[in-house]
Amino acid sequence: MKVKATFTQLVSIFALTFAFVASAFSQTTGSLSGTVQDANAAVIPGVSITITNAATNLSRTAITNAEGRWSVSALPVGSYTVSFQKDGFKKSSSAGVE
């Protein structure tokens, strides 16, 4: 069964969780992680995640696992754009993720 939705709909409507772990007190790195789910709370594996630092334009990538989860650690503290892409879906991005 093919889900007919765009990533914009998935990101804005469905449960997508970000956690940025960083402290202003001597920490210089943090992590971003999340879970991509559809309208029925079914996870979406195989989503390509690109995390781009707004200040340096350097990026890191991850792919959601079988449980729809992803995580990227050792990121310099800052503001990021997180993009989501999977064949059959429209690409979506979230800017200003800190």
Q: What is the fold's blueprint, element by element?
A:
Layout: H1 7-13, E1 29-35, E2 48-53, E3 59-63, E4 69-76, E5 80-85, E6 92-97
Task: Quickly describe the structure.
By secondary structure, this protein is mostly beta strands. The protein is built from one helix and six strands, in the order H-E-E-E-E-E-E.
Written overview of the protein:
There is one protein chain. The chain has one helix and six strands, in the order αββββββ. The protein is globular. The chain is about 5% helix and about 40% strand. With about 100 residues, it is mostly beta strands. It has one helix at about 5-15; strands spanning about 30-35, 50-55, 60-65, 70-75, 80-85, 90-95. Mean pLDDT is about 80; it is low at about 1-5 and about 10-25. Strands 3-2-5-6 form a four-stranded antiparallel sheet. Strands 1-4 form a two-stranded antiparallel ribbon.
